[in-house]
Specification:
Layout lengths: L1 H14 L7 E2 L38 E2 L1 E6 L15 E3 L4 E5 L7 E5 L2 E3 L5 H9 L11 E7 L6 H5 L8 H16 L6 E12 L4 E3 L11 E2 L5 E2 L6 E3 L2 H12 L4 E2 L7 E2 L2 E12 L5 E11 L6 H4 L4 H25 L10 H5 L8 E9 L6 H14 L3 E2 L5 E3 L11 H4 L2 H16 L25 H16 L12 H38 L34 H9 L7 E11 L8 E11 L2 H17 L2 H4 L7 H14 L16 H21 L3
Parallel strand pairs: 1-6, 3-7, 3-18, 8-17, 8-18
Antiparallel strand pairs: 2-19, 4-5, 5-6, 9-10, 9-13, 9-16, 11-12, 14-15, 16-17, 17-20, 21-22
Helix pairs in contact: 15-18
């Protein structure tokens, strides 16, 4: 809040000054970049440096994103005689650009470092990128982003050329050299390095090391770390290993030609280098540091690039992701509760780099030509907002369970206190009465600690001893099977005792079951012959279920049924057998054969149907809407329709007239009769009884 207040006061003061005075946009303590460091590099025109590892275990304070601006020189053939640059550097940290609203004023920007037209690749790497590599050996994350409009030199800054290698080859060369030195024999940590290479093309995450893997998903683990399942990881131990994987993968990146750039990057490229550390001694800690080297695609003005078709679609995806990137930066600066990381695959992947747990460096590339003026101002404004973002790096450290080598103890150390005392007493007796030495026993005849378990079941003890002798004969060099420390041996003995108790309990239960069976046999001697020998063997935990009595069907003579049906008060439904023909296809005959199949049909008394119809008709003519709702298939709406139709057309002459009511179809009328006629008739018959 204090910083915003100072900015407002300073801006209001600048409005009252003369037009020749420059306008200051931001003011912070500058980060003096280190230049003129000579490196000896294996590649032509490059050098090598030594990185020092800072003290581990210190948690660094919150660190903001550092921003460096690089001004590329004029491209050959674009600079005219009267073409002057629109950007001018003031010192190693600040620059100024003409104000497009008032050409007599200039806009002044201040960053952590500014590299002019004559700055080399080595100056940029040594001044901004090299200092953050040491954090990887502390188990912390770091990221380097190249940002800027199309044609500003982002890819050249990150990759470079064989004569002037960029940030990526220099960083990998130094990082591999440092890991070899820190992970050498005798050092406390063992280090390993892996690499992954991907691109974000039209909101699709593609693996450049394995292009056939398709679109990958971005996930977040329980600790908030961003990861990509299925992403290829290649272990590298030297710079030659890195080139063997990186150069073919770089040819898989999507590029295209526009009016401003013949090899314009059509996707965002991300090189992920992971450094794993394992401590060789206790407490066997693990550390993991990640280095993100990101070459962002440049924002494009389609009026100047002339994009059409696929190029226009690619440009839309690039501009959309960069727009979300700007929203993320604004949300972090304003302290909004929701940061739109998930609105784009790019920002989702950069969640650690912006507002996360990484030491981040943003290299903003700008062009000096006046035709790129608006793009340059936009890039500088984004860079000025980005350096206000605060990251909170921490050490990614965990403990691993390290398996210790087995310790060989003597037979005396394996014995308990009482057993050791008895052993010492036997030794004293042997010393007092010397005897001739016995012949040495073979490996299979050596005594085992199991022989001391006198309380064990003899059968189980014999099996364990035989297994011990078998293992000894197969090359165990006489080492007993259970040559374990006393604590583990006591646990084993306790387990054996519990098993013995379980066996005794089962034996007692078996005896109880056998006694019950014998008692049943003596109580019912008649059924003794029906028992088989297998029934005498009781089964453990067997539950006996009593079968429910089956329902009996009463079959009445057909004549009696016909007599009851002929009576006037009878209510009997008769099931009659009815033949039905079914066509069968014969294998030999051409015509299908017909075979009669028996089925049953329900026949209801005609008087019962007539009574049901009459009762429904009376209810339709005399019943109210409430009475009609008591019928099946009749609701409130249909009851009102029936009452209204009866008031207009008079009473129903037959039940089938219900079909004439508007809103009731013939099928509904038939289902209504089937649902109501039997129930009403049965209720009428059963009422007097």
């Amino acid at each position: 809040m204090l910083r915003k207040l100072q900015f407002i006061l300073q801006s209001s003061a600048n409005l009252n000054t003369s037009s020749s005075k420059t306008t200051t946009l931001t003011s912070q303590q500058s980060y003096h970049h280190t230049s003129c460091l000579k490196l000896i590099f294996s590649l032509p025109g490059a050098g090598r440096c030594r990185l020092s590892k800072v003290g581990a275990g210190r948690r660094p304070p919150p660190a903001r994103v550092r921003v460096a601006v690089r001004l590329r020189p004029f491209v050959d053939g674009t600079a005219g005689e009267n073409d002057t640059p629109c950007v001018r550097g003031l010192d190693s940290c600040s620059l100024e650009i003409a104000n497009w609203r008032n050409h007599q004023e200039t806009l002044k920007y201040q960053f952590d470092a500014f590299y002019g037209e004559r700055s080399s690749q080595q100056d940029i790497y040594a001044g901004s990128v090299q200092p953050i590599l040491r954090h990887l050996l502390e188990g912390q994350n770091a990221s380097v982003l190249a940002y800027g409009p199309t044609g500003a030199g982002k890819t050249h800054t990150m990759l470079g050329s064989p004569e002037q290698p960029g940030v990526i080859p220099r960083a990998l060369m130094d990082l591999l050299q440092l890991t070899r030195e820190e992970g050498a024999e005798g050092r406390p940590w063992a280090l390993s390095v892996t690499m992954s290479y991907l691109e974000i093309y039209q909101e699709k995450v593609l693996d450049l090391l394995e292009p056939s893997s398709g679109d990958l998903v971005i996930r977040e683990d329980c600790r908030g770390n961003i990861l990509i399942p299925g992403l290829t990881q290649k272990p590298i131990t030297s710079f030659a290993d890195f080139e063997r994987h990186f150069l073919p993968a770089s040819r898989n990146r999507t590029v295209g030609a526009t009016r401003l750039n013949q090899r314009s990057s059509r996707s965002h490229a991300v090189l992920l280098v992971k450094v794993d550390q394992r401590e060789r001694l206790a407490p066997f800690r693990q550390r993991e540091g990640k280095l993100y080297l990101i070459d962002l695609a440049g924002s494009e003005d389609n009026r100047r690039t002339g994009n059409k078709g696929l190029r226009l679609k690619e440009s839309g995806a690039i501009n959309s992701s960069l727009f979300v990137l700007g929203k993320v930066v604004d949300a972090l600066n304003q302290g909004l509760p929701r940061v739109p990381y998930r609105d784009s695959k790019l920002t989702r992947l950069l969640q650690d780099s912006l507002g996360g747990s990484a030491h981040s460096i943003l290299i903003a590339n700008i062009a000096p030509e006046r035709r790129f003026y608006l793009d340059t101002v936009s890039a500088l404004n984004f860079a000025a907002r980005s350096k206000e973002v605060i990251n909170r790096p921490f050490t990614n450290e965990s403990l691993q369970l390290h398996v210790l080598a087995p310790v060989k103890l003597s037979q005396k150390e394996l014995l308990g206190p009482s057993e050791a005392k008895r052993a010492r007493g036997s030794e004293e007796e042997e010393i007092g009465s010397p005897e001739p030495p016995a012949a040495p026993a073979s490996a299979s005849q050596k005594l085992s600690p199991l022989q001391k378990l006198s309380s064990m079941d003899p059968a189980m003890l014999e099996r364990l001893l035989s297994l011990d002798r078998l293992l000894g004969s197969q090359g165990s060099q006489g080492t007993p099977l259970l040559s374990t420390p006393r604590r583990e041996r006591m646990v084993l003995m306790k387990t054996v005792e519990e098993k013995d108790l379980e066996i005794e309990r089962l034996k007692m239960k078996q005896k109880e079951l056998e006694a019950k069976v014998l008692a049943q046999e003596t109580a019912d001697p008649k059924e003794k012959e029906n028992y088989s020998p297998t029934m005498l063997r009781p089964l453990a935990r067997r539950t006996v279920t009593v079968a429910k009595p089956l329902k009996k069907a009463v079959v009445m003579p057909l004549q009696l049924i016909q007599e009851q049906a002929a009576s006037p008060n009878a209510e009997i439904h008769i099931l009659k057998k009815k033949g039905r023909k079914r066509k069968l296809e014969s294998l030999d005959a051409s015509e299908p054969e017909e075979k009669a199949e028996d089925c049953w049909e329900l026949q209801i008394s005609p008087e019962l149907l007539a009574h049901g119809r009459q009762k429904i008709l009376d209810l339709l003519n005399e019943g109210s809407a409430r009475d009609l709702r008591s019928l099946q298939r009749i609701g409130q709406k249909k009851a009102q329709l029936i009452v209204g139709w009866r008031e207009l057309h008079g009473p129903f002459s037959q039940v089938e007239d219900l079909e004439r009511v508007e809103g009731i179809s013939g099928k509904q009328m038939e289902s209504f009769l089937k649902a109501n006629i039997l129930g009403l008739a049965a209720g009428q018959r059963c009422g007097p009884s």
